[in-house]
Amino acid sequence: MDQYEKSCPLTQKEVLDADFMKARNNLLEIAAFLDRLDRAKALDGEDDFRLVAFRRVLKDVANHESDKVKRMQMGLSDLSIEPMVERDVQTAFGAVKM
Q1: Which of 38, 41, 57, 94 could cross-link with 75 by S-S, CB 3.0 to 4.6 Å?
Q2: CA distance 5 to 83
Q3: DSSP state of 1
Q4: How far apart are CA 93 and CA 34, in angstroms?
Q5: What are the domain boundaries of the chain?
Q6: Helices (DSSP H) in the chain: which residue ranges?
């Protein structure tokens, strides 16, 4: 038995009743983001590591049954432990360059 199986005190119906509209909205936001990328005046980001990671994580989450949050978080995280010699940007990228 999976460690997360049966760990939620709610039934699936209760989870759907409580969270479906929020999850629906989040998916619509992701779809809108992907549509904006597709309509961009230049398709110059197709090989950008962030978009590659984003698409890989979406496929991975859709094709597995458990640990979705963990797999998504790990797929969109820089797991390197070496300190940067010099900071090249002000904010985090949210994915790792491969």
Answers
A1: 57
A2: 38
A3: -
A4: 17
A5: 11-43, 45-79+90-98
A6: 12-39, 49-62, 68-75
